[in-house]
Specification:
4 helices, four-stranded mixed beta sheet, 4 strands, alpha+beta
């Protein structure tokens, strides 16, 4: 069993990641984490978003959270971006490698990465 000091250190280290998943900020990034999404690789995508938002100091502006089935299983992993003043954007076939570009272009600069969206997906 871990000592109380070790458990407190682990709690402190993980606090930022938990807060990102619970916040109510201007931008919400929602990753589909139903069994279909998890099987397609959604967990590393979720982790990549959490890490990028945290490392780039965006936690005051962006919330990363998860949801169940989004309803388009053939396009998993699916990520939806909600902004209060804009239309929802649905990214499909997401990978951890694509996350950096979505953060940089869409979240930070307001330009949707069109080729990753459901409207522009080519099989």
């Amino acid at each position: 069993m871990k000592s109380l000091a070790e458990l407190a250190a682990i709690r402190e280290k993980m606090k930022d990641k938990v807060v990102l998943r619970e916040g109510t900020n201007d931008i919400r990034i929602v990753v589909g984490m139903a069994t279909c999404g998890i099987a397609a690789g959604a967990r590393p995508v979720l982790n990549a978003f959490v890490e990028q938002v945290n490392s780039q100091g965006l936690s005051g502006k962006v919330t990363v959270t998860q949801t169940g089935c989004i309803g388009v299983c053939q396009y998993e992993p699916v990520v939806e971006v909600f902004q209060s003043d804009k239309e929802k954007v649905t990214y499909v076939k997401m990978t951890p490698e694509k996350v950096g570009r979505v953060i940089e272009e869409h979240i930070k600069n307001g330009k949707v990465v069109a080729e990753y969206t459901i409207n522009n997906y080519k099989a």
